[in-house]
Amino acid sequence: MTADVAVETTPETPLWNDPAHPVAARVDALIGAMTLQEKIAQLYGVWVGASANGGEVAPHQHDMEEAVDLEALLPNGLGQLTRPFGTAPVDPALGALSLLRTQSRITAANRFGIPAVAHEECLAGFAAWGATAYPVPLSWGATFDPDVVRRMATAIGRDMRSVGIHQGLAPVLDVVRDARWGRVEETIGEDPYLVGTIGTAYVQGLESAGIVATLKHFVGYSASRAGRNLAPSPMGARERADVLLPPFEMAVREGGARSVMHSYTDTDGVPAAADESLLTGLLRETWGFDGTVVADYFGIAFLKTLHGVAGDWADAAGTALTAGVDVELPTVKTFGAPLAEAVADGRVPESVIDRALRRVLGQKAALGLLDADWSPVPPALDGVDLDDPEALRGKIDLNRPENRELAREVAEKAVVLLSNDGTLPLARPRRIALVGPNATEGTAVLGCYSFPQHVGVQHPDVPVGIDLPTLRDTLTAEFPDAEITVARGTGVDDGDLSGVAEAVDAARGADVVIAVLGDRAGLFGRGTSGEGCDVESLALPGAQQQLLDALLDSGTPVVTVLLAGRPYALGRAVAESAAIVQSFFPGVEGTAALAGVLSGRTAPSGRLPVSVPRGPGAQPTTYLGARLAHASEVSNIDPTPAFGFGHGLTYTTFAWSDLAVDAKEAPTDGEFSLALTVRNTGDRHGTEVVQLYLHDPVASVVQPVQRLVGYTRVPLAPGEARRVRVAVPADLASFTGRDGRRVVEPGDLELRFAASSADPRLTATVTLTGPERHVDHTRRLHAVFGQEPVAGA
Questions:
Q1: What is the rounded (10 degree) CA torsion for 109, 111, 115, 116?
Q2: CA-CA distance, 395 to 416, in Å (whole number)?
Q3: Where are the alpha helices (DSSP H) in 34-84?
């Protein structure tokens, strides 16, 4: 029950338990009744794992933490429970029962009966055993479809709430600046507008299901030097303001996110967890964010151990609290005894604790956790007999058919056809050589924050928990009359060339080769993609390029299929492959989506959320570069990508025509209205993605050559045409000026309607008139698109 719904209370009901009163009054009354130890207890979590038999949880032991004594902690209360489902494999129903019993224990132990907020990872679906593994965020970006991402997030959030979870640690709103970074798979792409719109849709979906969405990592994590995890971020203030902050700004303002997680990184010597100007000045005082700021795991302790800006644990706690961090995760370290000691000796004022506590308790009140009638029984166990735990096993399904159907829709929309000489779609091939390390590997569709790759790999004796058909499985079903010969060729990263000859023999005996290459997701060096799996270059891992080159030499057409977490340089294959199909860890339905695209059962409509490099070493690069960042005559390194941001082919053709501009001049506080016609000139249904880029030829500070300011998907039947209209506010031309303020300057602009950053189709030159105009976080953020049928088409 939420804080806005009245319940029947008695005169003995404390004010803080009565939802008939305003949240602020309830929180103030509760804070006034708490001891210092009780206040501090609400500001940290404890890492737990659900009991496999439905019993109470026990603290999770991690190599970066000391053991905690729950018996000693719980009488003072507890702020958060860390990953009760995402720590070890547990049947969802027994996990829900375990969480229920743990919450009962927590509420019984503290004198105010306050339960904990339970949080989980949900970067590619609810990170729980047996839950649907959806495509990773890079695939969300490839859809260019906020609606489908919003629906996916809603489904994920409903599953989480059904078993008692309150908060989800997603989405990642870091903008890719260097594709060598291992966490590229967790991002949405290299453009802030795409990241912002897709990420905000994900936030809206989670929040609509009652889950507190957590924006991460605030801010600068992805701009680390050389793409190394947790390295310093050498960005300037303008890059931070114009590239890295806008997605967070949008998700706070339009998404309604109720939590933000600080970044591990430091920028110009100031760690994010210690940056008061960021966490309090910008986030709260300027943007008006009123939710909670939570620590990235161990991030407060890192102020002492990694950043060296705190002399002891108490100093770290006080620094983070003062900056604006409210909750220490994943478990108590600095916010426990060290913080209490710091208050006692005067180093940290109790008012700073009260400030954080007010936010934490306000969120608990909004979640209904302070209400007198709050129950630990989650919706999935409501009305169920809880006395026989074993009878509950298998009673909660977190991988229902409707989940998988949604996962398939996202996966299908995210498949990107990079090149095609007409070989695709395959027309009933008689003999297929299926080659490569990811052809028969079920987990090749999963990212590092999927439960099987994140947790399950540490429990090899436990079943994966979800069905993961390989591409061999789905191709066999897709082409039942074909003879499919399988050859591994080489491993993902073992460098083994002993199987290449067998693969080439298979290729020579086939009508077509499907080479399935890419990554293995993992953590901290256990994979080729994922957290802590950074790379020195963007060459394919291991000996995969040698395998691919040998297949190209076989004389048989090669369709290169990539199941990966980042873009890779493909060498000769860019020009010599019959076709290239890119999929970024597409989840449980990913191989079915790929098989459908290869056969033509579904039409590809994905677009690249990150550029595909031409060479492996020209990094860092991004389409979002200034003139000096692009190819020039004064450097022998050409960073021009093989396939640019936004690129993607279909199985039909489109004609763009009849560009019209209502007025070519508008004031700096006005807008432009434009229209164009898009027609399907082929013989198949297809979806075009109309992308709008802004080019500012003369500005007071250096600007990117172009940047995305809008996009829309246009599905069209053969011969069908639609008139696409768009209103472009002048605010979209704003940037951070020399004085640090965001400005809209008068002058000429180019508005480029394009099929990708490298493929402009129609360009309008327009002019902003009048004085310079300063704007802030309340500026207009979107071009507004509309579509209508063209009569007679």
A1: -80
A2: 38
A3: 36-41, 70-73
- Residue 774 tokens read as 């300063």
Spatial contact of 744 and 720, defined as CB atoms under 8 Å apart: no
pLDDT value of position 50? 78
**Phi, psi dihedral angles at 71 (to 5 degrees):** -60, -35
Digit-coded pLDDT (tens) for 758-787: 999 999 999 999 999 999 999 999 999 999
Using alpha carbons, list the distances in angstroms from residue 60 to 44, 66, 70, 82: 15, 10, 11, 9
Residue 8 pLDDT: 45
Write the CA distances from 596 to 119, 308, 372, 479, 719, integer angstroms: 36, 53, 53, 10, 23
Instruction: Please state, rounded to an integer, the average pLDDT across all residues of the chain.
Output: 95
**342: three-class secondary structure by DSSP:** helix
Give, in order, the Cα–Cα distances in Å from 98 to each of 56, 93, 104, 371, 691.
5, 9, 10, 22, 49
**Tens of pLDDT, residues 540-586:** 999 999 999 999 999 999 999 999 999 999 999 999 999 999 999 99
d(CA 146, CA 152): 10
Please, what is the Cα angle at 164 between 355 and 50, to 5 degrees?
100
pLDDT tens string 649-658: 999 999 999 9
* Contact predicate 330/47, CB 8 Å: yes
Mean predicted confidence (pLDDT) in 325-349 = 96
Q: Name the nearest CA neighbour of 702 among 736, 725, 749, 678.
A: 736
Beta carbons within 8 Å of 231's beta carbon, 6+ residues apart: 224, 225, 265
Radius of gyration of the chain (CA): 27
Evaluate the CA torsion angle 247, 249, 252, 255 in order and state its sign.
Answer: negative
Q: Is 704 in contact with 765 (CB distance < 8 Å)?
A: no
The pTM assigned to this predicted structure is 0.96
By the 8 A CB rule, do 449 and 629 touch? no
Angle among Cα 292, 293, 295 to the nearest 5 degrees reads 135
Sequence letter at residue 27: V
Rounded to whole angstroms, how far apart are CA atoms 330 and 81?
Answer: 8
- For residue 330, whether the previous peptide bond is cis, meaning omega lies within 30 degrees of 0, is yes
Amino acid residing at 692: L
The span from the CA of 683 to the CA of 16, in Å, is: 65
Tokens 């003879």 label which residue? 483
636-687 pLDDT per residue, tens: 889 999 999 999 999 999 999 999 999 999 999 999 999 999 999 999 999 9
